[in-house]
Design brief:
The longest helix is centred in the N-terminal third of the chain and has 16 residues. The model has no long low-confidence stretch (mean pLDDT 94). By secondary structure, this protein is of the alpha/beta class. The protein is built from 14 helices and 14 strands. It has two domains: 286 residues, Metal-dependent hydrolases (TIM Barrel), CATH 3.20.20; 104 residues, no CATH class. A six-stranded parallel β-sheet has the order 1-2-3-4-5-10. Strands 6-9-7-8 form a four-stranded antiparallel β-sheet.
C-alpha cells in the first residue's frame, strides 16, 4: 500500500463498494468473502483450531458479508494460515454462506499426490453444508502425478451424478503462480511472516527446512518440489532493489551467486520480506487439455489485473493476466480444434456468471446487462509470454461493459461504466439483521 501510495478507507464490503463507486471503474467487480481473511482477523496466524466462540464470530462475519453482497465463501487451504482450518470449520462457514444463497469456491488443500483426499474434503463440504462447490483452477500438480486428470474428472462426474453440485474452472497454461515462500513447509508459517523469517534466520531451523526441501521426491510434493528442479521456478520480487532479478529462474540466480538453490530461495524470501512472487512449471499439456474439454469446467485467469502502462506494469506477473481468454480462443479453439468455439464462449460467459448467481449477465438476451467482447476468431490470440508477460492480446475489436464501449481496437475510451456486482444474499441496510427469507409482514 505504501509503495503505490494507496490508502484503504473501508472496513467491510459496504465500504469497499462505496470506494469502488467513487473510483468510477471501467470494469465490474464482484467478490467472495475469504475464509483466510476471516481466520486472520479472528484467530490469527497460529496453527491451531478455532474455539467455539471464534467460529461463531467468523460465521457472523460471513452473514454480514453475504448481506453486503458477497457471492459466497472462498478458501485457499493450500496456504498459510488457511490450511490450519479443519474441514469442520469450513463446513460451518460454508453453511453460513448458503443461508444467503451463496456458493463455496476453493483452492483445494492439495492438487498433486493428495488430490483424492482434497476431492473427498470438497465433496464433504458440499454435502454437509448443502452448498454448490466450485474447484478453482483445477490442475494436476507435480511431475510424479501427471496423467491423473482423467481420473479426477471421472471422480467429479461421479459426484455430480450422485447429486452434488460440483463444477470447476482452469487457466490454459502449464505453470501456476503464487508466492515463493509457499514452497516452504507448512509448519514454518505458524505465527505469520515474522515467525517465518525468524525460523529462516535460525541456523538449526533453516537446516531442518533445507533437509525437507532437499529430500527425495514424493507424490505429495508442492510448488518448488513439484517442479523438475530450480529451473522450473521463475521469481518476481517486490522490492525495487531486487527488480534486477525479475523473471529470472531460480537456478540461474543460484548459479550467479554460487549458492545452493534452496538457500537462494531462503535468501530471497528474507531479503524481500516474504513478498517475492514465483511461477512454477508443474503441469502437463495432456492434463490441461482433458479438463478443458469438460462442459462443466469454466475459465479463470487466476491473476490480478495489470496493465503495461499502469502501476503494476513494471512488476512481474504471469502471462495469464493478459492472455488467458484469447489463448483459449486462438490456440485451443482455432489452431488445435480441441473444443468448439460455442463451448469456449459459454465457459467464459454464461457458465461463469450463472455459477456465482449473476443471472442477469453472461448471455446476449433482451433485458440483460450488455457485458460483451467482440473478437475476430481468425486473429484472436495471446502475445504475453513468461519472459515478457506485459503484452496485450490481439484480435479484440471491442469490449462493452454495462452497454458502453470501454475498449475500441486497443484503445481505452472515456467511458467508466463499471460497478460492484452484488451477490444473491444482498440486502439493503434497512433490511439487514433479519433471518434469511423473512418478510416484513
Amino acid at each position: 500500500m505504501k509503495k503505490y501510495g494507496y490508502a484503504e478507507d473501508w472496513r467491510d464490503l459496504d465500504g469497499y463498494f462505496a470506494h469502488l463507486a467513487r473510483a468510477r471503474p471501467t470494469i465490474n467487480i464482484a467478490t467472495f468473502v475469504g475464509a483466510t481473511q476471516l481466520r486472520t482477523a479472528v484467530v490469527g496466524f497460529e496453527n491451531r483450531a478455532a474455539t467455539a466462540a471464534e467460529l461463531a464470530h467468523m460465521s457472523a462475519l460471513v452473514d454480514t458479508a453475504m448481506e453486503q453482497g458477497a457471492l459466497g465463501l472462498s478458501t485457499a487451504i493450500e496456504y498459510a494460515p488457511a490450511f490450519y482450518a479443519s474441514t469442520e470449520e469450513i463446513i460451518a462457514l460454508a453453511t453460513a454462506a448458503r443461508r444467503h444463497g451463496g456458493i463455496y469456491a476453493s483452492h483445494m488443500r492439495n492438487e498433486g499426490g493428495q488430490i483424492d483426499q482434497s476431492l473427498d474434503e470438497t465433496f464433504r463440504i458440499a454435502r454437509e453444508a448443502n452448498i454448490p462447490a466450485e474447484i478453482w483452477h483445477l490442475k494436476i500438480s507435480g511431475t510424479h502425478n501427471w496423467g491423473r486428470m482423467p481420473h479426477v474428472l471421472a471422480r467429479i462426474d461421479s459426484a455430480r451424478a450422485a447429486g452434488l453440485d460440483i463444477t470447476a474452472d482452469q487457466y490454459p497454461y502449464l505453470a501456476g503462480a503464487t508466492s515463493l515462500d509457499a514452497s516452504i513447509p507448512a509448519w514454518a508459517h505458524s505465527g505469520g511472516d515474522d515467525s517465518l523469517m525468524w525460523r529462516l534466520r535460525d541456523p538449526a531451523t533453516r537446516a531442518r527446512l533445507h533437509a525437507e526441501l532437499a529430500a527425495p521426491p514424493q507424490i505429495t510434493d508442492r510448488f518448488y518440489r513439484a517442479t523438475q528442479g530450480p529451473q522450473g521456478v521463475l521469481v518476481f520480487p517486490f522490492e525495487d532493489s531486487l527488480h534486477y532479478l525479475q523473471g529470472q529462474r531460480l537456478s540461474d540466480i543460484a548459479a550467479a551467486r554460487h549458492r545452493d538453490p534452496i538457500e537462494t530461495m531462503f535468501d530471497l524470501v528474507l531479503a524481500d520480506h516474504v513478498r517475492t512472487g514465483a511461477i512454477y512449471f508443474i503441469m502437463s499439456e495432456p492434463d490441461v487439455d482433458a479438463a478443458m474439454q469438460k462442459e462443466w469446467v469454466a475459465v479463470d485467469c487466476d491473476a490480478p489485473g495489470v496493465a503495461p502502462d499502469g502501476p503494476f506494469g513494471k512488476e512481474g506477473t504471469h502471462p495469464r493476466a493478459y492472455g488467458t481468454f484469447p489463448r483459449i480462443l486462438g490456440r485451443y479453439v482455432r489452431d488445435l480444434k480441441l473444443l468448439p468455439l460455442e463451448l469456449a464462449v459459454r465457459k467464459m460467459t454464461s457458465l461463469a456468471a450463472q455459477r456465482v448467481g449473476l443471472m442477469d449477465r453472461g448471455l446476449l438476451r433482451p433485458g440483460l446487462y450488455a457485458d460483451i467482447t467482440v473478437f475476430d476468431p481468425a486473429t484472436v490470440g495471446d502475445r504475453a509470454t513468461f519472459e515478457q508477460p506485459h503484452q496485450p492480446s490481439t484480435g479484440i475489436a471491442y469490449v462493452l461493459v454495462n452497454g458502453q464501449i470501454v475498449l475500441a481496437h486497443g484503445q481505452l475510451t472515456a467511458a467508466r461504466p463499471g460497478r460492484g456486482l452484488l451477490g444473491p444474499g444482498y440486502l439493503p441496510p434497512e433490511r439487514r439483521g433479519r433471518k434469511p427469507g423473512a418478510t416484513s409482514g
